[in-house]
Amino acid sequence: MSEHQNIEYKQSWRDEYLKWICGFANAQGGRIYIGIDDRGGVTGIDEYKKLMDDLPNKIVNYLGLVVDVNLHEKEGKHYIEINVPASTVPISYHGVYHYRSGSTKQELKGTGLHDFLLKKIGRTWDDTIVEGATIGEIDESAVASFLKACVKSGRIYQSADKDDLPAFLQNLDLITDDGKLRAAAILLFGKRPQRYFIHSYFKIGKFGNSDADLRFQDIVEGNIFEMADKVVRLLKERYLVSPVSYEGIQRIEKLEYPEPALREAILNAIVHKDYTSTTIQLSVYDDKLMLWNPGQLPVDIPLERLTQKHPSRPRNKHIAEAFFRAGYIESWGRGIEEILTAFKKADLPEPVFEELWEGVMVTFLKDIYNEEYLKKKGLTTRQIKGLVHIKQFGRITNGDYQRINETSERTATRDLQELVEMRLIIKAGSTGKGTYYFLK
């Protein structure tokens, strides 16, 4: 049996492995085997009798956990199994919280630790009470828009349209029995959410040739329920181009990027944002969009699993529930899959997801003729320079290719032919000086 998320092998015992036990307890539980190598082969331990006495006491004294410690034997070699159950309360080792994610152990810090501690007691940040906020802070027109969307989606209780405002908010668990508003209520329907949560706005900027070249920018404020529509509308009006095409006599205008994917990404950012941190930032360039959202991924969903099927783990459960009821999002963790599918249908490069600056960045590329994308496709530096030249000037000749790459005619011919075979460019003409290449 090989190591995986719930199994760890150690050839001998060290007290630092108490951190691994801590990590298993804070996650889904697991087993640690002492006296087995990384390949699953039994190497055995000589001091097994002493460890059978010491380990249960150490684990109780340092971690407060009662675990099963079992002795096994194979071919005359003894090894120990430590069976760690998942804990219902947070476990720390010397004041530090560890978490098992995938086949690695993480030390929880910052917002990741904050979210973990809240989750262990069955709460999320948007569940907290906003002291001093009254129901007069709620914009009833925003609630009416929300209710209309919920009725359309069929995800609201039948008498919702007959409830007064306090009853409606209470049925959504956005207000306590004694009339205190939760953070989610202010963010979703507040008249001025930024009064309580200063960074709850959405920032968009148009950049030129570099990050220092900011051409213009906008800030979208107000309640977050209406924010996604405002952001998409602003992108269409000021930031993105809608090329015109025709299907028969019907005029078709589509954004440079798939609109459903953009909307899904913006909704994901709003729903999963860490509202104790800074603002959501959308940077628009000539060849790409970069959307950065403050807030790390859940500890049990590492980046490499984000683009795979995974469960929904909302940072803000009340906000996520409201957007689900309105039909804006699903509750199955399928948002990333929908984004990827939309870009694939549009024949555009797969979006790039990264964890940066205690947040998540997604980069949307406008076309495949992008340096970042082409590097991942395995193209040489010469070929990338050639494609960039075509993108800038519309075409390239063999002589142009030789000049910009300082290479021979033979190498230029071979490189260009490879690009043709990869269906990245098209050759015009057969031989001679009249031959040139342009983008497919």
From TrEMBL:
What sequence ranges are listed for the domain Schlafen AlbA-2? 3-108
InterPro entries attached to this UniProt entry: RecG_C_sf, Schlafen_AlbA_2_dom, Schlafen_AlbA_2_dom_sf, WH-like_DNA-bd_sf, WH_DNA-bd_sf
Among PANTHER family, the record links this protein to: GLPR-RELATED TRANSCRIPTIONAL REPRESSOR, SCHLAFEN ALBA-2 DOMAIN-CONTAINING PROTEIN
Protein name as catalogued: Transcriptional regulator
Instruction: Name its species.
Output: Pararcticibacter amylolyticus
